[in-house]
Inverse folding.
């Protein structure tokens, strides 16, 4: 992300919060606190965070309340895409779906391929013969790890397939797959926002403005 993206962030925050933001932070990032927290993000992730902040402002206004601007670290967290943003189930719901259909996985229309693949990675026999609470808890933890790794791959723009699960990824450890997915997460966010693979700072600012409905 370029320094100009932080300047645009300050402009939008000023529009959303007025003096509640500028009285604390000024017209630009004078202390460098925002740059320190956000410099590793892609412009598409910045747009995700700004959309969520704008939604907070709108929700507060409908309830007759006042929304306050987030701190830099809080805003950085708001910029991270979630599984739900990509049409994926939260982990708890995905686990319930797997448990309900592990006995006949081939006959179920899965909510997402990531759910089926995570169940297959744990093992359908193991899931249907889980035994006591201790083993069931271990299987759920394993499923959540597998599902989280697959969600990261989806968010990185990867098309999941059974072949992909046993192909080149088989030579990588789970930690290596997660690290790769983390590095590529911004690419999925960019694609979801309709951004090209490469863009200059001006294009990035224009796309942020468009995502926010600003001129």
């Amino acid at each position: 992300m370029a320094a100009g993206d932080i300047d645009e962030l300050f402009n939008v925050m000023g529009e959303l919060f007025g003096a509640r933001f500028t009285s604390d932070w000024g017209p630009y990032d004078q202390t460098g606190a925002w740059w320190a927290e956000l410099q590793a993000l892609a412009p598409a992730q910045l747009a995700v965070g700004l959309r969520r902040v704008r939604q907070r402002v709108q929700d507060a206004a409908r309830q007759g309340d006042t929304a306050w601007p987030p701190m830099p670290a809080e805003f950085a967290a708001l910029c991270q895409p979630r599984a739900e943003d990509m049409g994926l189930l939260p982990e708890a719901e995905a686990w319930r779906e797997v448990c309900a259909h592990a006995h006949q996985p081939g006959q179920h229309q899965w909510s997402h391929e990531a759910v089926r693949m995570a169940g297959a990675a744990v093992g359908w026999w193991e899931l249907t013969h889980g035994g006591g609470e201790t083993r069931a808890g271990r299987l759920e933890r394993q499923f959540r790890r597998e599902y989280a790794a697959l969600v990261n791959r989806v968010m990185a723009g990867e098309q999941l397939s059974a072949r992909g699960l046993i192909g080149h990824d088989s030579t990588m450890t789970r930690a290596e797959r997660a690290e790769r997915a983390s590095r590529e997460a911004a690419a999925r966010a960019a694609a979801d926002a309709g951004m090209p693979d490469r863009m200059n700072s001006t294009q990035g600012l224009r796309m942020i403005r468009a995502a926010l409905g600003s001129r």
Remarks:
- The chain has twelve helices and no strands.
- Residues 163-172, 186-200 have pLDDT under 50 and may be disordered.
- Residues 3-80+191-212 form one domain.
